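Quick one, tokens below. Sequence please?
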């Protein structure tokens, strides 16, 4: 009988380590600043039969993205929890025939966003199936799928850890249960640690961003596209407003009038007045205002217009929106449409050229890539 109690004590000690890993998993999910990798250690105390209260540590790694304005989402990626289970626990688990261990957990945290009421959040977690060696330590890795949380209010935002419940199951090689069945324990954060996992002011002026631009513009009336390169400098002037916009390099396009007359044109998009837009969640809406200049137009290989005077008679305004998956830190897709006004200053061919250029339905399809200022 004493021997059987000893075995259960060893098994419980091993399971405690895994249970704590699940608990600390959720701590990692919410404990960092925007677009920042984190590696953190926290300790919890878990009560267990026979061996009483036990204190365990775990190492947590994750990347986080904090929204730049109200209405954005708090997101998590690259989340892992690694716990080193000692040789003593491995040998104890082997005594009851266990060759693997796996389990689940439920974690509770409290989110406070500005003046909104505290929001309790309960997240399911998993400890992946992990093989137990005949001797020596082993390191189970815990992961979890964390839903995004929309932060609607401006002001101070905090996330505070609460209590955790975990349940693990050691199994034999054939997949059957050991005599322990499934093991459940409630764990609490040890005192003397800061339970606030994340704290920031949502609504302050975000940092500026600088991107390189690559993509294309589609010219509907001409039935062609032109490649685009350049840059995009974004300078927030308030929590949800920014100044700046795209600056494109001179580009070139080839086309065919009526499907058989070859032509070519150089294009420049020249900013007209102040540029800017709105910050929206993890992305933005830009509204660049620009004049389209055609410094060189040829038909059948011969110039029919040259010089900067050939341009649209009034500016265009595009509405460029960031796409799904865009973040301020990583960049992503930026698309929109614009209308071209009739041309002016293109010489004797102005009315003729204008009919093949003006109109709506023109497009920008761009990708922004972060660059250093």
């Amino acid at each position: 009988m004493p021997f059987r109690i000893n075995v259960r004590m060893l098994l419980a000690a091993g399971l405690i380590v895994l249970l704590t890993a699940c608990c600390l998993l959720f701590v990692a999910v919410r404990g960092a600043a925007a677009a920042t990798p984190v590696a953190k250690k926290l300790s919890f105390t878990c009560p267990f039969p026979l061996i009483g209260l036990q204190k365990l540590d775990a190492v947590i790694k994750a990347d986080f993205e904090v929204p730049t304005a109200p209405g954005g989402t708090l997101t998590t990626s690259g989340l892992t929890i690694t716990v080193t289970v000692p040789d003593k626990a491995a040998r104890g688990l082997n005594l009851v025939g266990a060759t693997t261990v796996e389990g689940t957990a439920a974690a509770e945290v409290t989110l406070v966003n500005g003046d909104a009421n505290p929001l309790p959040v309960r997240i399911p977690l998993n400890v992946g199936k992990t093989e137990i060696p005949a001797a020596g330590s082993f390191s189970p890795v815990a992961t979890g799928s964390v839903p995004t949380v929309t932060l609607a209010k401006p002001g101070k935002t905090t996330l505070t850890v609460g209590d955790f419940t975990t349940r693990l199951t050691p199994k034999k090689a054939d997949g059957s249960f050991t005599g322990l069945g499934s093991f459940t324990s409630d764990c609490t954060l040890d005192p003397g640690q800061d339970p606030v996992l994340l704290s920031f002011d949502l609504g302050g002026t975000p940092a500026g961003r600088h991107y390189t631009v690559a993509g294309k513009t589609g010219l509907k009336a001409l039935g062609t596209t032109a490649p685009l390169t350049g840059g995009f400098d974004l300078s927030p002037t308030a929590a949800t407003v920014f100044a700046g916009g795209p600056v494109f390099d001179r580009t070139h396009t080839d086309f065919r009038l009526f499907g058989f007359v070859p032509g070519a044109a150089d294009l420049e998009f020249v900013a007209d007045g102040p540029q800017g837009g709105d910050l929206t969640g993890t992305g933005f809406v830009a509204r660049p205002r620009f004049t389209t200049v055609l410094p060189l137009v040829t038909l059948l290989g011969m110039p029919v217009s040259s010089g900067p005077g050939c341009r649209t008679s009034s500016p265009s305004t595009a509405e460029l929106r960031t796409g799904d998956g865009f973040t301020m830190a990583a960049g992503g897709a930026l698309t929109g449409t614009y209308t071209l006004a009739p041309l002016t200053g293109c010489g004797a061919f102005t009315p003729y050229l204008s009919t093949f250029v003006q109109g709506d339905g023109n497009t920008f399809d761009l990708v922004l890539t972060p660059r250093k200022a």
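DSSP finds three helices and 26 strands in the chain. Residues 2-29 form the longest helix (28 residues).
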